[in-house]
Amino acid sequence: MDILKTEHIGFCFGVQRAISMVYRELDKGAKKIYTIGPIIHNPQMVTILKEKGVIPVEDVSEIDEGTVIFRTHGIKKEEEAYIKEKGVRIVDTTCPFVKRVQKHAMYLKKHGYTVVIVGDRNHPEVKSVLSYLGNDGIVLQKPVPVHAKKIGVVSQTTQDKETFVRIVEGLLEGAQEVRIFNTICESTEIRQKEAVDLAQRVDMMLIVGGTNSANTKKLYNIVKHVQPCTYHIETEDDLEPEWFSGVHMVGITGGASTPDFIIDVVETRIKKL
User: Fold this and answer.
1) Burial class (CB within 10 angstroms; exposed 0-12, middle 13-18, buried 19+) of 20
2) Cα separation of 178 and 224, whole Å?
3) What confidence score (pLDDT) does residue 173 get?
């Protein structure tokens, strides 16, 4: 059985940057390190950091001392204000590409545009961007006309371009002016393209990453359209031997928050089947 992997696999730039920043804090001997929510959407990596003393909390009011890590997806404006008021040490690992979404969204609102965010309303990145708009924004996951004279559009960084384009086209029906900032992360686009290309050459695809990872789920949905024999797994323990019956070539790709070591272990397990 042959195993092929996409070229861009493992941590993306933003995730690698965040994890490196956290390890630097640990190396300094920092005590009581917190993140508001998981720093990245990979349960295995979050568990490893938790064992080293990096504690994710859901309610910012639980923090009154120590060091606070702003996670890769960004945090809400009111959470940032609370932390600064407390005067605790801050390490901001928000992905620069997420910061770009916030910047463009605030620019659009300042200049009188009705702001549309293409993405998932329940995703922490979108919640963060909305909070900096005073929750005065529209979140869309499918084409819907928005009747406003001036519409400004940004995208969740992990959005697929096809959906983004379809939603923008739908907005043209109800607006006199539409201004667009394509804030989809380049790494996301590259990974999606590579995964589709690989899926066309193999008998089965494995998408490795957290089940809570938006970009991993996007990868799975996109690849599934091309290669019906596609599975989304978190770790090697999710592999089922019967999947590989009659399979001669397996393709593997991973989400932007999937560590290399998990990919390596999955590959090793497949070779042992």
Assistant:
1) exposed
2) 32
3) 85
CA distance 210 to 233: 8
80 part of the active site: no
Q: What share of the chain is helix, strand, coil (3-state, %, to 5)?
A: 45, 20, 35
List Cβ neighbours of 53 (8 Å cut-off, separation of 6 or more). 26, 31, 32, 33
Q: What six digits make up the tokens of 252? A: 């593997």
Beta bridge mates, 20: none
Q: pLDDT by residue (tens digit) across 21-80? A: 999 999 998 889 999 999 999 999 999 999 999 999 999 999 989 999 999 999 999 999
For the domain 13-94, what is the CATH code? Answer: 3.40.50.11270
Name the pTM for this structure: 0.91
pLDDT at 127: 97
Is the dihedral angle over the CA atoms 154, 156, 162, 167 positive or is it negative? negative
Angle between the N-to-C axes of helices 96-110 and 13-27, in degrees from 0 to 180, rounded to the nearest 10: 110
For the domain made up of 97-184, give the CATH fold. Cobalt-precorrin-4 Transmethylase; domain 1 (3.40.1010)
Question: Coil, strand or helix: which one is 134?
Answer: coil
What is d(CA 108, CA 152) in angstroms, rounded to the nearest whole number? 6
Once rounded to an integer, what is the mean pLDDT over residues 201-218? 95
Q: Which residue among 80, 125, 194, 234 is the active-site one?
A: 125
Q: Which CATH number fits domain 2-9+187-272: 2.40.30.170, 3.40.1080.10, 3.40.1010.20, 3.40.50.2000?
A: 3.40.1010.20
Tokens 């979050």 correspond to 46
Average of per-residue pLDDT across 223-228: 96
Q: What pLDDT, on a 0 to 100 scale, did the predictor assign at position 273?
A: 84
